[in-house]
User: What shape does this take?
Amino acid sequence: MMDKVKLARHRNTSYFVRYDADGSNKQWTWAGSKNGRIDTKEVPREVVDWLQMNSVCFDKGELVIVGDAKDISELKDGISDIEAYESNTHSNEDIEKLLNGNINKMKSELKKITVDSEKQFVVEVATHLRDSLTKGKLDFIAEWMGTDSSILFD
Assistant: This one.
């Protein structure tokens, strides 16, 4: 069993955790990913257990558990909505690969995303790639976000 767990913030906005379950008041802030560099922090295992019971940060993909596959699968067992976690925890690299790949696969994968901040992250990555993306892909992303591509990608 692990004493420390690595948690990463894939989105490009910051995320903050305050843990005071054991009487202490510990805080962690993830700066968010910048230029594809993911901010990762090590936290005690009990913090991860506490987050799983008291927050939706994993279900909503706000934080991503990283590390050895065996250890991760044990930790993922504690996530109440594993499907939501898997669908809302893309890295910048994952999104770029998805957007640059097959349009039908892109559409089906994007439809699985349920969290607004993850959708916004996809839009920001798409905005950086807009010159290399087809009009069809940009139009689909805009429609997926419920807006017009001329507004979204101007």
User: Anything to note?
Assistant: The mean pLDDT is 91. The two ends are 50 Å apart (CA to CA).
